[in-house]
Amino acid sequence: MASTTSASAPESEIRKRVPIPPADPVLPPPPVLKPNYVHISEQPYTLANWYKHINWLNVVLIIIIPVAGCTAAVFTPLCTKTAVWAFFYYAMTGMSITAGYHRLWAHRSYNAKLPLRIVLAAFGGGAVEGSIRWWAAGHRVHHRYTDTDRDPYNVRRGLLYSHLGWMVFVKNPKKAGRVDISDLNADPVVRWQHRNYVLVLVVMAFLFPMCVAGLGWGDWKGGLFWAGIARMTVVHHATFCVNSLAHWIGDQPFDDRRSPRDHVLTALVTFGEGYHNFHHEFPSDYRNAIIWYQYDPTKWTIWLMKKIGLASDLKTFSQNAIEQGIVQQRQKKLDKWRSRLNWGVPLEQLPVIEFEEFQEQAKERALVLIAGVVHDVTNFVESHPGGKALIQSGIGKDATAVFNGGVYEHSNAAHNLLATMRVGVIRGGMEVEIWKQAHREHKDTVIAQDSEENAIVRAGFQPTRINAPVMSAGAA
Ligand SMILES: [Zn+2]
Ligand SMILES: [Zn+2]
């Protein structure tokens, strides 16, 4: 074995040179590795680092300015003109987010001419929700990774998180989902607005509404606090509701695998963005509501823009695709409902017995044979709607003909009820052959299965139902 000079040096000398001895004094001490950088969002909260977890710029923009401004607004008299202006500007800036940031830039659900794009970019900037580029990219990520850790406003982390929390806490950019935004980068309006966002924000959110009220009717303070900050706060929460409320309350007529929901209340506060289950299924459709009476002012505005020549190529999904979604979702719900009901033991799981054995066992309990299937009606004899005597006359016998119209043509409900009393199948009985034939004749319906692979038994196609022509077909 080869030896080194250090290996041959006395042990005490090594200790002097290396204050902390490595595991093997023969080898040089291992290089001190720089500890892996752990992003702040993955570090636990401590008294020393809690403030690093907070995105302070966002806190100022979405909490501190709104709270301070709204408090100031409360102490500022609201004159009618300012109130009308604030409401109008609220609609303008809110709609620029829904029709512009969302449906135009994030989803490209229509094309807009340059003047319309400039207006939407300017007023959208006045909503103080970030630049188009940032907003639309994040929203595309939300659609791509809905309800997962990569979804920036993942509602699975709680309603408050999806509403506001996601902007308050610092996130690891490496963990964010990625999407293509080359089309956004190619739009000069988007590029300009992104580069000059601070200017756009200050002018459009605060100075412009203040100057309109100030120069128009001398209400500078009301213009700033009511039309500026209070209005901005309302727009904020209206938009935030799409991320929170629209993933929380309402129906899921198109697909229920993920959280988006349709609700008129959410639509009312979000300029029509509340039909969010539809929107996540058909994101590039310029509509969110598809029925004429549903509240979707953003859709109406885009339509109006088309009429005046500022918008074109309004995209819609085909009615066929939309109705397919509705049918499949309803089918899924029906299947779930069906699976909760008792349809009787499946025929293939029933024991096969000889006819003689059936007769023998019928002496001990009330067994009735119908269409080759043995039913135990012991607990039903007393409550038979047609009377005790009639049902008793069938015990131990083949009551197929009697049950299927010989005495009374039993209802669909009666066949369903009978199925829950099945206990066996007769080997090779004639009626067994009959229901096998019935299976063959109606194979599309009788052997159809739901999404959980349970047999679907449609009304009128129960195996105990023997249609009259089966017996008389050959006689004619
Ligand atoms: Zn969503
Ligand atoms: Zn969307």
Describe the protein in words.
It is a multi-pass membrane protein. Keywords: Electron transport, Fatty acid biosynthesis, Fatty acid metabolism, Heme, Iron, Lipid biosynthesis, Lipid metabolism, Membrane, Metal-binding, Oxidoreductase, Transmembrane, Transmembrane helix, Transport. With 476 residues, this protein is mainly α. Helix content is 50%, strand content 4%. The chain contains 22 helices and six strands. The chain has a four-stranded mixed sheet with strand order 3-6-5-4. A hairpin with a 2-residue loop joins strand 4 (367-370) and strand 5. Helix 4 (80-106) packs across helix 5 (114-125) and helix 4 (80-106) runs antiparallel to helix 10 (197-217). The chain is elongated and about 100 Å long. Bound molecules: zinc ion (2 copies). One zinc ion (ZN) is lined by residues 142, 247, 260, 276, 280.
